[in-house]
Specification:
103 residues, alpha+beta, four-stranded antiparallel beta sheet, 1 helix, 8 strands
C-alpha cells in the first residue's frame, strides 16, 4: 500500500509539472526579465503583470521568444508577485525576490 501511494504521488507531481506553464524570472538592477513558456515552448503575447505592486500599474506582452522586461524602481528589496495570462486565457503566478543594492 505504501509503494502504491508513493507511485501515485510521483505520477501526480510529474503530470502536474508537465502541464503547467513555466515562468522564469531573472532579476536585474533596473527590473526583471520574465520568460513565459508552456511545455518548453515560448508563449508569445502572454500578458505579464505585477498585481500587488501598485506603483507599476501596467501590463506587458511577451515577444515571440516569450520574454518581456518589466522595469522596477524600488527603494527596498522585496518579493514581487508576477502574473502571466497566456493567449488562451490560462493564468499562472510566480513570486520572486527583487534585490536593491545601495551604493
Amino acid at each position: 500500500m505504501k509503494k502504491l501511494n508513493i507511485s501515485i504521488s510521483t505520477l501526480l507531481v510529474l503530470f502536474s509539472a508537465a502541464t503547467l506553464a513555466d515562468i522564469n524570472i531573472v532579476d536585474t538592477k533596473n527590473g526583471s526579465w520574465v520568460t513565459v513558456s508552456k511545455n518548453g515552448v515560448a508563449e508569445e503575447n502572454a500578458l505579464v503583470t505585477t498585481p500587488k505592486l501598485y506603483q507599476l500599474n501596467q501590463a506587458f506582452n511577451t515577444n515571440d521568444n516569450g520574454r518581456v522586461f518589466i522595469p522596477l524602481s524600488l527603494n527596498s528589496s522585496r518579493s514581487i508577485q508576477y502574473k502571466a495570462v497566456t493567449s488562451n486565457g490560462e493564468e499562472f503566478l510566480r513570486i520572486a525576490y527583487h534585490g536593491v543594492s545601495k551604493r
